[in-house]
Write a structure and sequence with these properties.
- The chain contains six helices and five strands, in the order ββαβαββαααα.
- It is α/β, with parallel strands linked by helices.
- The chain has one domain.
- A five-stranded mixed sheet has the order 1-4-5-3-2.
- Strand 2, helix 1 and strand 3 form a beta-alpha-beta unit.
Length: about 170
């Protein structure tokens, strides 16, 4: 599983967006798989218009390797502030699976977005991971995702955290 996110300092994203004009909450072509997946994920989060999410293709970026390593990322402006946009890597495995529309994959996408929202609110990596996990656990306990798949994903999240901490 790729790294969840990373603030990317002064990354040039010119030409990276799959599209630039659409509903305020999701930046992708209307009725595209990207817009449908993001809209469903934001609905799970209860944030249909408060968060701007853009899907980007790493192959169109000035620094594609930086984007290929993550599922989602934020951009830091030259003045040090975080741009209030969550970028999703169109080619990451969780995003590609979410585009297929399965409920579990939309829930995982929502958890990834939740992680980034916490960074936008000022949380560091441990706080963002905790919020991501708590959100997803809530979906499992509420029966919004199948428990066997949900618990498997939570175990995978735990394993990734332990691997990172061991480094």
């Amino acid at each position: 599983m790729p790294s969840r996110s990373t603030p990317v300092a002064s990354m040039v994203l010119a030409g990276v967006l799959l599209t630039a004009a659409m509903p305020a909450s999701v930046q992708a072509a209307p009725a595209s798989p990207e817009s449908r997946a993001c809209a469903r994920a934001l609905k799970l989060l209860g944030l249909s218009t408060e968060v701007v999410v853009r899907v980007v293709d790493p192959e169109l970026a000035a620094e594609p390797e930086a984007i290929r390593r993550v599922d989602a990322f934020l951009v830091r402006e030259r003045d040090g502030r975080l741009r209030q946009i969550i970028y999703l890597n169109r080619r990451s495995a969780p995003v590609e699976r979410a585009l297929e529309g399965r409920d579990i994959d939309i829930a995982i996408l929502a958890a990834i977005i939740r992680h980034e929202i916490e960074h936008l609110r000022g949380a560091g990596e441990p706080g963002a991971r905790l919020a991501e996990r708590a959100f997803f656990q809530g979906l499992v306990f509420a029966g919004r995702v199948p428990s066997d798949e949900g618990l498997a994903y939570l175990a995978e999240l735990t394993q990734v955290v332990h691997l990172r901490e061991a480094r």
